[in-house]
Amino acid sequence: MTTDRPTVLFVCVSNGGKSQMAEALMRAHVGDAVAIHSAGTRPKGTINAESAASVGRAGASMAAATSKPIDPELLRTADRVIILGGDAQVDPVEGMRAEIERWETDEPSVRGVEGDERMDLIRDDIRARVEQLATELGVEPRPSVLFVCVHNAGRSQMGAAYTHHLSGGRVEVRSAGSAPADTINPAVREALLEEGIDISAETPKVLTNEAVEASDVVITMGCGDTCPYYPGKTYLDWVLDDPAGQGVDAVRPIRDDIKRRVGELLTELGVEVQPVPADR
Asked: Is 227 annotated as catalytic?
């Protein structure tokens, strides 16, 4: 291998569901500390929408996922090769570094559980296995922060964007709202573009218990939202003006206040603050 990072390859038949879930959940957990890949023995070229939605409810993302076949060179050089479920079969290749493992993942349908509940149980089983895998690889999880405001269209989006960029990706970031809007506030988008940060691909997301449970720090943004309580989490409330209905001139001071607070938060988390893209 050409990197000192451990490399993991997750495999299932279609590379549209379980292996993609494992890849997304592990990337959310450890970031770039592990080179994470997934593939299929008979890829379909499509991603399972129910799997993607379940991962999204946990605050991870399969948005960039594509279904693909196994790369023989990756199979040979990966440190861990893990098949999810009982259907896929992978033949070893010469010079293979890893032993092929199999995770017999939970299948709630045999207990009569279907729909979103079934998929979330599968996700939670995979997530627990992924977290154990990270421990076995000696990789520390990233700190995780969840930003919450009512519509997830302004303040919480700015908080998430700054946390991602100022941490250099060293913090797992989520944002959500109790009553998400249809689109991002355009003045917020414009104000962040001045900093070299483009959130045009983001969409408001609904707040879920899973996102709160998966986060170390939960920050409400002075908008009256309440979050489910889980022991061991840090809950903060940042009192901020509301950018809704405001022009970019009014949004800039709110943006700058959030940027300052995020910098202080990262320092408290022991994460070195990086410059925003416009200043690099």
From this structure: yes
Which residues does residue 38 pair with via DSSP β-bridges, in sequence order? Answer: 10
- Measured in degrees and rounded to the nearest 5, phi and psi for residue 117 equal -60, -45
Helix (H) or strand (E) holding 51: helix 49-57
Counting beta carbons within 10 angstroms of the beta carbon of residue 195, is it exposed (0 to 12), middle (13 to 18) or buried (19 or more)?
A: buried
State the angle between helix axes of 115-136 and 49-57 in degrees (0 to 180), rounded to the nearest 10. 70
Report angle CA 55, 117, 112 to the nearest 5 degrees.
Answer: 140
Kindly name the residue from 227, 240, 262, 269 that is annotated as catalytic: 227
Decide if 2 is inside a domain.
no
Catalytic residue among 26, 149, 173, 212: 149
Q: Is 149 a catalytic residue?
A: yes
Structure tokens at 167: 């941490």
181 lies in the same domain as 128: no
Active site residue 12: no
- Does one domain contain both 116 and 172? no
Name all contacts of 68-72 with Cβ < 8 Å and 24+ positions apart.
68/15, 68/38, 68/39, 68/40, 68/43, 69/15, 69/39, 69/40, 69/41, 69/43, 70/9, 70/11, 70/39, 70/40, 70/41, 71/37, 71/39
pLDDT tens-digit map of 118-173: 999 999 999 999 999 999 999 989 999 999 999 999 999 999 999 999 999 899 99
Model pLDDT for residues 174-213, shown as the tens digit of each residue: 999 989 999 999 999 999 999 999 999 899 999 988 899 8
d(C-alpha 169, C-alpha 166), whole Å: 8
Residue at a domain's end among 136, 170, 192: 136
The C-alpha atoms of residue 52 and residue 245 are separated, in whole angstroms, by: 32
Q: Cα separation of 178 and 156, whole Å?
A: 12
